[in-house]
Amino acid sequence: MASPMFEHEITRAAVLFQKARYAVALTGAGISTPSGIPDFRNRDTGLWEHVDPVEVASIYGFRRNPQAFFDWIRPLAGLLRSAEPNPAHHALAQMEAKGHLKALITQNIDMLHTRAGSRMVYEVHGHLRTATCIACSANYPTESFIESFIEGGAIPRCAACGGILKPDVILYGEQLSAAVLHAAVRAARECDLMLVAGSSLTVAPASELPMLAAMNGAGIIIVNDDTTYIDSRASVAIHADVAEILPRIAAELEVK
Ligand code: ZN
Fold first, then answer.
1. Tens digit of pLDDT for each residue in 91-130?
2. Confidence of residue 46 (pLDDT cuts 50, 70, 90)
3. Domain end: 114, 136, 169, which one?
4. Same domain, yes or no: 92 and 199
5. Do residues 112 and 210 share a domain?
6. What's the pLDDT at 72?
7. pLDDT at position 203, please?
8. Is the pLDDT at 41 greater than 90, yes or no?
9. Based on the structure, what is the number of domains in the chain?
10. Which long-range contacts (CB under 8 A, 24 or more apart) does 146-152 make?
11. How much distance in Å is there from the Cα of 129 to the middle of ligand 1?
12. Sheet of strand 219-223: strand arrangement
């Protein structure tokens, strides 16, 4: 049985979604931790033991020492491959399917939103669906090499020119995709409701989108373990597990 905690806040959130003309969601690492994926910017997860993130997961580090990058990302790639979308991902997909959510902006590279069925997804930090040759820019589905990479650890290479394949994730020191960022900024500007789920809003520029939305008059709903800088401007702020709260909001919308 669902806990009665936050009942009032959940009802209020559902009412805001019902009234909204254009609601968008912004998600971060916290929405995937219930799927067993560590926040890869969090120093406490073990992913950064013995490695310097700027050295390993930056575009400079990648070009200088690709092996170190691939050694670092290999356990994470294995985790991502076995991870499944959790009830929070499914709730957002359901809300979109029912017309309560127009778009989803995510900082995650794990593709769990699209796997859960979300369709209008802006992945501002890129994704692991494809990889691009750093020599000739040929693009490959990750599917074509991920199995042998996870098992053997060999650096994936371009079938055409032998160049190294870089996953299409945004590394430190790399520009975000202008097209994706513009779409996300446009959604933040045009929305009249923004749900922030599983993000503590510490990584720019995604962290700035709720402020942009609020300045344009949008209501803000926060569902996150920790507080965020924009809590004081939020109509609803629930500090709890996204995998518990989002399905309850989606369920409340169903019965209304
Ligand atoms: Zn190539």
1. 999 999 999 999 999 999 999 999 999 999 999 999 999 9
2. low
3. 169
4. yes
5. yes
6. 87
7. 86
8. no
9. 2
10. 146/77, 146/81, 149/70, 149/74, 149/77, 150/74, 150/77, 150/78, 150/81
11. 17
12. 121-123, 103-106, 23-27, 193-197, 219-223, 236-238
User: Are 135 and 253 members of one domain?
Assistant: no
Let me know whether 30 and 51 are in one domain.
no
Kindly report the CATH number assigned to the domain that includes residue 153: 3.30.1600.10
Domain holding 202: CATH number?
3.40.50.1220
The answer to whether the pTM exceeds 0.90 is: yes
Structure tokens at 29: 């690492």
First to last CA, the chain: 20
Tell me: do 185 and 235 sit in the same domain. Answer: yes
Going by pLDDT thresholds of 50, 70 and 90, the confidence category of residue 50 is low
Residue 81 pLDDT class (50, 70, 90 cuts):
confident
Distance 165 CA to ligand 1 centre (A): 8
Annotated active-site positions, please? 125
Residue-range definition of the domain harbouring residue 218: 1-37+85-125+175-256
Q: How many CB atoms lie within 10 A of CB 234?
A: 19
Tell me the CA–centroid distance for residue 58 and ligand 1, in Å: 20
Contact, 234 vs 220, CB < 8 A?
yes
* CA of 160 relative to ligand 1 center, distance in Å: 5
Do 32 and 108 sit in the same domain of this protein?
A: yes
**Residue 29 and residue 133 in one domain:** no
- pLDDT of 36 > 60? The answer is yes
Taking the centre of ligand 1 as the mean of its atom positions, its distance from the CA of residue 19, in whole angstroms, is 50
Give residue 4's pLDDT band: very low, low, confident or very high (50, 70, 90): confident
SS3 (DSSP) at 112: helix
Ligand 1 geometric centre to CA of 201 (Å)? 36
**How far is 13 from 254, CA to CA, in rounded Å?**
13
